[in-house]
Amino acid sequence: MNHRTWVDRIADWINVIVLSLIAAAMVVPFLYIFSVSFSSMEEYLRKDFILWPDHWVTDAYRYILSNDKFIKSVLVTIFVTVLGTTLNLAFTSTMAYALSKPFFGQKLFLFMVLFTFLFSAGIIPTYLIVKETGLLNSVWALIIPVLISPWNLIVFSQFFKSIPEELNEAALIDGAGPFKVFTSIVLPLSKPALATFGLFYAVMHWNSYFTGMLYLSNPKLWTIQLLLRQIVVVNDTSSLSAEQFVNIQPPPAETIQMAAILLATLPILIVYPFLQKHFAKGVMIGSVKG
């Protein structure tokens, strides 16, 4: 029988209370953002803190979604996220698979990867490289400089080493080439790793704004995070001049900010449940023996 002492029970209650406080500290800000975004101007001006609006209005969302700049930034962000994540996985998986196999010069290539992981050129040299290669004011400036993550590459390589070599040898005996083995055997067995790193890369591209600040001066190429920064940090909502609100009083700037934050976060929250099954397995990739 499991005999629990009063000390164990007190410890359990302390854990419950502490975890509940941590959960509340995470949930309350989201609830506040959600509530303010649906609040009317009168209610927002009357109350100092809103956790649940008395009257639900969608003026802030109609104001944002009727704006061409916001829709354009969403489309640019989707394009960068989808294309960037696809290229990230393609280049990371192929190079990781190559590094997982013994070949002449393997240690040199591995050293080069580790060197970039420990030391970076810095903001100014990287900016000069992007400028000299003609990537400024191009969506490629948000993709090519971060094409391969050294950390993801190393972990991915260790994952490939855990795949039984007998599978590869059997395919080679049957006449399959190295590329056929990689695409038909290795990649199907790597769904947890692909889902995990795909989610990491997708979140990185979707939330990236600093690289856009450095490399994009054309507002037409702004991603949703750059536009969100303009609305929230710079507190400039004048660029969101929705046609249907030109002749009437627009919603409060704060409700527009909260609605923009929620709309920028929503896509990742929608995608994650579909990858949760593979992501739960993929988080254990780093524990695979090399």
TrEMBL record:
Its main location: membrane. GO terms for biological process: transmembrane transport. It comes from Paenibacillus hemerocallicola. Coiled coil: none annotated. It is a multi-pass membrane protein. Belongs to the binding-protein-dependent transport system permease family. GO terms for cellular component: plasma membrane. Residues 74-275 form the ABC transmembrane type-1 domain. CDD domains: TM_PBP2. Keywords: Cell membrane, Membrane, Transmembrane, Transmembrane helix, Transport. It is found in: Cell membrane. InterPro entries: MetI-like, MetI-like_sf. This is Carbohydrate ABC transporter permease. It comes from the Bacteria. The chain crosses the membrane at residues 12-34, 74-99, 108-128, 140-160, 181-204, 256-275.
